Amino acid sequence: MLEIKDVAFGGKAVGRLEDGRVCFSPDALPGERVQVTVTRETKRFVEAQLDRVLEASPRRVKPPCPYYGACGGCSYQHAAYDYQVELKTKQVGDVLGRLGGIENPNVLEGVPSPLPYGYRNRITVHRHGGRIGFHRRDGKGLVDIEACLLASDEVNKRLAELRRERFHEGARVLREHASRMGFHQTNDGVGALLQDAVSEACGSGGCLIDAYCGDGFFAHRLAKKFQRVIGLEWNERSIAQARSVAHANESYIEGDVAARLAEVLEEADGAATTVILDPPSQGLDVQVADLLRAYPVAKIVYVSCNPATLARDLKSLAAVYELGSATPFDMFPQTAEVEVLAILRRRF
Ligand SMILES: C[S@@+](CC[C@H](N)C(=O)[O-])C[C@H]1O[C@@H](n2cnc3c(N)ncnc32)[C@H](O)[C@@H]1O
Prior knowledge:
By secondary structure, this protein is of the alpha/beta class. The protein folds into 3 domains: 1-60, CATH 2.40.50.140; 122-175, no CATH class; 188-346, Vaccinia Virus protein VP39 (Rossmann fold), CATH 3.40.50. It has 8 helices and 16 strands. The chain has helices spanning 81-98, 153-164, 188-202, 219-222, 236-245, 257-267, 286-294, 307-317; strands at residues 2-7, 13-16, 22-25, 33-41, 45-55, 122-128, 131-135, 142-144, 170-175, 207-211, 228-233, 250-254, 273-277, 299-304, 321-329, 339-346. The strands form 3 sheets. It has a 7-stranded mixed β-sheet, with helices on both faces. α1 (81-98) runs parallel beside α8 and α6 runs parallel beside α7. It is globular, with a radius of gyration of 22 Å. The N and C termini lie far apart (53 Å). The mean pLDDT is 96. The chain binds S-adenosylmethionine. Residues 182-185, 212-214, 217-218, 232-235, 238, 256-258, 278, 280 line the site of S-adenosylmethionine (SAM).
């Protein structure tokens, strides 16, 4: 019998075995008493699979998806939706404290998705061995999927069409908005809330540098509020899209942020500059953090899809910037992922 104390970032419930070792198990919730089978052991911790819930949390719900548990996509369908947001919000604080070295980080209330299901405007499916679907949670091949409850109706329609087509083995991206080829936020509802929040966090006046700008999702919206807006992005198509609608004060540089940021920061008046960072899940390249310390700017608005790399980057920027606040955005309900908007100010 195991008593669950917490759910760690990544979605695994945490309890302690009688011998003192920490035990991680999926599908359980804080306060529950569960029966588990150990699947992997080390000296310090064990991993286990959930066999039975002996005493259920009042916030446990019945997962609506027939593939839940087998499919590797979702981790939280067994938790009420508002509870998922609470759990992720606590995880963001824990990770910023533990990996970021920030004492009592100011984590604001998590922002839920307007749609807890049916929110994905794109999915990537795989075909292998006669199956079309997603990777299994246990890593042993694919789960054949008729429809995904996270995907929008349009995307599920594309999946049904694909299942009637012959397509070669491999991965296929199915998009609701077929014209969007570069990066675009996956959950339109949360994307819009995030865009509003970034816009408010950036304020107005001076120069805005949007690093990892995609097609200018944040930069273009802010063009009227800043004298000058500069976007940096290495995807050619995204840059072309950004340039096609840019106002006169917006410019977009195609290239690696690590290679092109120096020239932009050297020219800018740091005291009147705001930087947006929205990197992929690996976070910032070392050179990018070095440059932001070497050429301090007034404010950094960091949009992260990985709290662990965000925490690492905040630690590396900490000599010059302090965290004002971090707000979790639930871009991917039912999954272990969480997006975070962190606002950093120059210390001196
Ligand atoms: C998380 S997306 C954000 C895009 C945009 N901010 C948005 O909200 O639509 C990250 C973007 O960074 C770009 N990217 C990733 N690594 C990069 C690098 N080293 N230099 C330039 N762009 C990069 C990707 O092509 C992608 O468009």
